[in-house]
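User: For my dataset I need records formatted as: sequence, then structure tokens, nothing else. Please produce one.
Assistant:
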Amino acid sequence: RLYQIPFQMPDCGEEPESRTLHLVGDFSAPAEFFVTLGVFSFLYAMAALVLYLRFHSLYGENKKLPFADFCVTVCFAFFWLVAAAAWGKGLSDVKAATRPASLVAAMAVCQGLDVECGAGATPAMGLANISVVR
């Protein structure tokens, strides 16, 4: 929800005040889908572990239970792939929306001929990139 994040932009008019602007975009849906699927996968893995360890005889006697477990695992694997792709696209969109050069280019104060605007430091996205690789 980038639209909730404010940042200050200098106003180079007659009065040197800064204006508060907000970033543009809402890329929370892919991240929420990714995290929700991760939580459900963890809960299912814990339930399956209890089933395997505590009710091993039930798992061995019932022929439908292993097949149901296999089907649920395949579904989770498919949705995990979809969620990782969605989060990768969402992260790409977040990077594009927060690129310092893009933010500076969008500022009206930086459009003058005699004005030099610097982007400053590039944000570190290493941990976010690692979250997509997992």
